[in-house]
Amino acid sequence: MSLEHLRGATLSFSARPDDENHHGVHYFDDAVVTIDDGLIRSVLRLDQFEREGGRLEAVDDLRPGLILPGLVDLHVHSSQLDIIASYGRQLMDWLADYAFPAERAFADEAHAIDVAEQFLARLFEFGTTTAMTFTTVHAHAADAFFRAAARVDARMLGGKVLMDRNAPGDLCDADDGQAATLALIERWHGSGRLDYAVTPRFAITSSPAQLAAAGDVMARHPDVYLQTHISEHPEEIAATLALYPEASDYLDVYARHGLLTDKAIFAHGIHLSDAELERMRAAGAAVAFCPSSNLFLGSGLLDLERLEERGVLMGLGSDVGGGTHLSLLATAADGYKVAQMAGKSWHPLAALDAITRGGADALGLADRIGTLAPGSEADLVVLDAAPGTLLAQRIEAATTVAERVFAYIFLGAEHAVARTYVAGVLRHRRQPAQDRPTEVVR
Fold first, then answer.
1. Model confidence pLDDT, tens digit, residues 286-299
2. Which of 333, 362, 391 is the last residue of a domain?
């Protein structure tokens, strides 16, 4: 039996942390994580590890690193790496000016294959080990994404985008997209650690017939996921209700077509009404909070506390390329700012929970990923400030776990992720950095 032992501080959650007593927080300042055949076998304090016969010479010492569950991105577009930080007005204009032209390039299958490999490498670079991913309308782009993920045994979710109106003609399905979707489900859903998500972009770009076809797929395959956008921008909401006048609200558009289920992840949800949130909670659907893109595109400020009070499942989405970074640490930092703008505070441990266990729970996968519980899949990220960085200086001054986490969230996007493990295999190791601060020239 070949075991791998990683030593460092460990932090994970079994419930959303309470700001006052940190209920659900599991922290060891010096522990050993043992990996066995792609699974977490145990997480033991160092003294307990030694008492149970563990040998320190067999341990990979990652101190002062902090070992966490791999990060979970609930909403990202793999086709939009090249348009991150593209200047452009607000949502509908940005789609026309940047997103659609970028997605057009995926008609070239070789391009789709190349980008899929780049995309996964970039995710691992920033500590993301699971992502719910929009590819493009091209079936071969979804196929390329799943093939790339299968090669590295990553737990990934994704789907071919469905669009049949109000988009460039060469990016619209010639039919309702059902046949291509069913073929991809047959090929990839439940294969290894992969899951399929039926993916209508949003109601504006899908006709009633296409949404009905998507609902039919969900009815035939109830264990398949649904991902789409909802209530991101006021102009989008008005356009949606004009196209679907029979609907009582935006969520009702999807519900009428069988798309409101406990497998549904709705990106954004900034402007959802109380009634919509209650129906979402009752269905067990989740919101992907995308603060970076919401700020970048001026879409609005999600009220996190309102979601929590109403019991709606929630995780974070980088929403690249409307989002400005693949790093979920940077995304959580923007989430903190959004809460501050509402006069509220988002505790750093609650933010970290949202990109680990919270995201996994929204997917119904918290028994497999998102924690360091024995038996969970060994998707891990090791945070450790690169020497000579401002982050390293701030971490040195931190006096509590929450302070350390907060520093990683705000300063760690580029310098914090030292290692990423996918199913127990090291898939990213940070390149050695300078061991001294940059010299100041006077």
1. 999 999 999 988 99
2. 362
What is the average pLDDT across 388-409?
A: 96
Read off the tokens for 310. 């109403």
Strand partners, 30: none
Neighbours of 81 (CB within 10 A): 16
Measured CA to CA, the distance from residue 155 to residue 143 in angstroms comes to: 15
Residue ending a domain, among 338, 362, 386, is 362
- What are residue 377's DSSP bridge partners? 39
Domain check: are 239 and 93 in the same one? yes
Is the separation of the CB atoms in 288 and 312 below 8 Å?
A: no
What was the pLDDT predicted at 442?
43
Q: Looking at the structure, do residues 357 and 389 belong to the same domain, yes or no?
A: no
Structure tokens at 324: 């400005």
At 213, which helix (H) or strand (E)? helix 208-220
- List all residues 6 or more positions away from 21 whose beta carbon is below 8 Å from its beta carbon: none
Q: Is the pLDDT of residue 215 over 80?
A: yes
210 with 271, same domain: the answer is: yes
The two three-digit tokens of residue 322, written as one number: 């409307």
Alpha carbons 316 and 152: distance in angstroms, whole number: 23
On whether both 104 and 18 belong to a single domain, the answer is no
**For position 55, what pLDDT does the model report?**
93
Residue 108 pLDDT > 50: yes
Amino acid identity at 385: A
Domain range for residue 186? 71-362
- Where residue 279 falls (left for φ over 0; alpha for ψ -120 to 50; beta otherwise) is alpha
| Number of domains making up the chain | 2
pLDDT at 440 > cutoff 60: no
Q: Which CATH number covers residue 77?
A: 3.20.20.140
- Residues 394 and 127: their CA atoms lie apart, in Å, by 20
Same domain for 130 and 187? yes
- Which DSSP letter does residue 78 get? G
Percent of the chain with pLDDT over 90: 88
Concatenate the DSSP letters of all residues of 37-60 into one string.
TTEEEEEEEHHHHHHTT--GGGEE
List of long-range contacts for 237-245, beta carbons under 8 Å, 24+ apart: 237/271, 239/92, 239/204, 240/202, 240/203, 240/204, 243/203, 243/204, 244/203, 244/208
Q: What is the predicted pLDDT for the residue at 29?
A: 97
> Is 210 in contact with 254 (CB distance < 8 Å)?
no
Q: Return the CATH number at 26.
A: 2.30.40.10
The answer to whether residues 376 and 264 belong to one domain is no
pLDDT (mean) for 87-102? 78
Q: Is residue 381 assigned to a domain?
A: yes
